[in-house]
Amino acid sequence: MENEEKSPAFGRLVGYSAPMMRVRETIRVAAAFPSTVLIHGESGTGKELVARAIHELSPRSQGPFVTVDCTILTETLFESLLFGHEKGSFSGAIASTPGLIRCADGGTIFLDELGELPPPEQAKLLRFLQERTVLPVGSTKPVPVNVRVVAATHRNLAKMVEEGGFRRDLFYRLDVVRAFTPSLRDCAEDIRPIANALLSNFCDLLGVRRAFSERSLDAMLLCRWPGNVRQLATCIERAVVLCAGELIEPADLCLDLPETPGIGLLEQSEEQAVRYALAASEGNRSEAARKLGVDRRQLYRLLARLEKRAHPQSVA
Predict the structure, then answer these.
(1) Which residue, 102, 186, 219, 293, has most beta carbons within 10 Å?
(2) Any idea what the CATH number is for the domain that residue 294 is in?
């Protein structure tokens, strides 16, 4: 616990659902070893946050953490940006540069969106992973590098291997320790604590006071969140800025709510189903009953039963 408190990234991981607890445990285990880590997860699920937490809890925590956006690594940029180049090695090379991998020496290099690398660059990366040396452009002398590699992707690399889009040998080099960042759909119970943590951060940043109404929190549970935490953060920041008062209502969040609850009422508890329907209907009970597929009298009976369940001592 003491080491975890020293990691700002680990502290920013909010939520205690089963998927989030698995992420935390993977971070703790992976941090203790120098093995390569491959993080899978949809866009906006905090893959870089997990990579930083692994670095900050590792023996390399005092070394650099260098992020490489693989989506910008074109064939002409790859070797120069990652491996560095010598002065005069090509037109415009007015000075020698070490490259991002050597900048990460003694620390961790994070290869974000690795699945976007074209095949020729995959081969060059494989050579580095095998030999742990880099050959700067214009040089004939390999330079040894001591770095820990963490990679991340939103793609299914195993499927890409079968389809010929990703090198099998590179996949096996990377796929040592696996980590999975869950989508908000997979940990809906974490939406409230994540939303409250984001709200607190934005209020501190913008110097304002805001709070969520219960209907806002219910409405956030109803949203599908295809952009995950990144989309949730954008909606909350927008609401903090545009909210007329201190209480944030569903309209302030500008949520794209589905016609029917998108989390699957049959898979949720009875109480959640009712709360979702009421939130989506802005408190209109007739509309909520329609969304639930019951008539208004049945909805009232549901509400009465939930009230008894919540306050059994008040029932004679």
Answers:
(1) 219
(2) 1.10.8.60
Q: What is the DSSP letter of 293?
A: T
| Residue finishing a domain among 182, 211, 228 | 182
* 3-state SS, residue 89: coil
CB atoms within 10 A of CB 158: 13
Predicted confidence band of residue 263 (pLDDT cuts 50, 70, 90): very low
- My answer on whether 142 and 233 are in the same domain is no
Q: pLDDT value at position 262? A: 43
| 254-259 contact pairs (CB < 8 A, 24+) | 255/219, 255/220, 255/222, 255/223, 256/223, 256/224, 257/219, 257/222, 257/223, 258/222, 258/224, 259/291
Q: Assign residue 145 the CATH number of its domain.
A: 3.40.50.300
Whole-model pTM over 0.90: no
How far is Cα 292 from Cα 281, in angstroms, rounded to an integer?
11
- Cα separation, 280 vs 68, in Å, equals 41
Residue range(s) defining the domain that contains residue 58 = 2-182
Q: Residue 68 forms beta bridges with which residues?
A: 111
Query: What DSSP element (H or E) covers 179?
Result: strand 177-181
Handedness of CA 39, 45, 46, 48 (dihedral sign): positive
Looking at 28-37, 219-228, 238-247, 252-261, which range is the least confident one?
252-261
What is the 8-class DSSP label of residue 264? -
